[in-house]
Amino acid sequence: MTTVTGHLRTALQLTELGLPAMPLREGKLPFGNCRTCTRSACGDRPHMKAAGPCECPAPCHGWAAATTDPDILTSPAWAGAWRQAAAVAYHPGGAALTVLDLDNADAIAWARETLPATKTVTTTRGEHWIYLGTMTSHNDVRPGIDIKSAWSYARWLGPGTGRMALLPDAVRALAVKETTPVAAAPSNGVVPVRPGDAVCRHRSPAYLERGIAMGEQRITEAASGVHATVYRTFLAVLSAHGWCGCLTEAHIIRLFTAAQAKGESLRHCEIAWTNARMKLGM
Question: Which of 90, 107, 133 is the last residue of a domain?
Fold first, then answer.
C-alpha cells in the first residue's frame, strides 16, 4: 500500500470527482513505459482506448495510465512514480470534458470575444477553459491555443471558477482545417452541427415525430441499464436525423425529459448526447 501524501492525495480527490488521474514527472511529462512495455513491446493497446487505465502494473502509456481506481493509484507498482511526481494530471476525455489551453494574453482575449464563458482555471502562463463534452485533442489550433480532450492529459491546477458550459461548436471548429467549410454554431450548443432543411429530407416530418416518440418510449420502458438505454437512444435518433438539421430544441428536450423521468440527471443527459455526437463524428 502506497503512503497517501502530497500529489497522491490530490489524485485520490480527483477520482472522487470522476476525473481519471495520473502523476506527472518534471517538465509536466508523464512517466515513461515500464520495462515490460519498453519500445512498445506490449503493443501499447491502452493508447487506442478513449480512456485508461493502462493494462500493465506501472503508470506508463502517458494519458492512458490515468485512472479513477484508487486501488491502482495506491498500488505498490505506482509508489515510485508518486515519490518522483512533480504534479498531477487528469484525462479530460475520460471525464467527458474538453480543456482549451490558452497560453497567453492574446489567446485569452480571443476566447473572451469569441467563446461562451465557462469554468476557468488560472495556469502559469494563461488559462484553462473547461467545457462539458469530448472531442479529439489538437495542438496549435490557433496561436497559443491547444485542445486537450480525448487521447490527452491536462495538468490539475485547481477546481477553477465559474459554471461549466457545453462544448460549443466554435471550439470543435478550431480543429477543422481552414479549407473545410465550417457550419455556424447553433446557440443552444446541443443541436447537431450540420444544418439542413427545416424538415427531414430523406423521409417526412411524420418520420421524425415517430422517431422521437419511439425514443421516448424506449427510455420510459427501460427496466434496467438506463444509462446505456439513454445513450443508445440518443445515438439512434442522431444517426437517423442528426445530419438533416431537422432536430429542434423541442425534440431534444422531449428526449432529455424522458431520461430525467427515469432518474438521469441533466448532466448525464448532456454527456450522453455529446458522446453520441462524437461517436457519429458530428
Answer: 90
Residue 193 in domain: no
Tens digit of each residue's pLDDT (9 = 90 or more) over 63-106 = 888 988 999 999 998 999 999 999 999 999 888 899 999 999 99
Q: Residue 113's domain spans which residues? A: 94-174
Q: What is the pTM of this model?
A: 0.62
Contact (CB, 8 A) for 108 and 43: no
Q: What is the pLDDT of residues 174-215, one digit of tens each?
A: 887 543 333 333 333 444 434 343 445 555 677 778 888 888
Per the CB < 8 A criterion, the answer to whether 52 and 67 are in contact is yes
Q: How far apart are CA 228 and CA 206, in angstroms?
A: 27
Backbone φ and ψ for 94, nearest 5 degrees, come out as -70, -15
Q: Report yes or no on 156 lying in a domain.
A: yes
Q: Which three cell numbers stand for residue 235?
A: 445515438
> Would 103 be classed as within a structural domain?
yes
φ/ψ bin of 6: left (φ > 0), alpha (ψ from -120 to 50), beta (otherwise): left
Locate 198 and state its grid cell. 427545416
Q: Is residue 187 part of a domain?
A: no
Question: What total of structural domains would you count in the chain?
Answer: 3
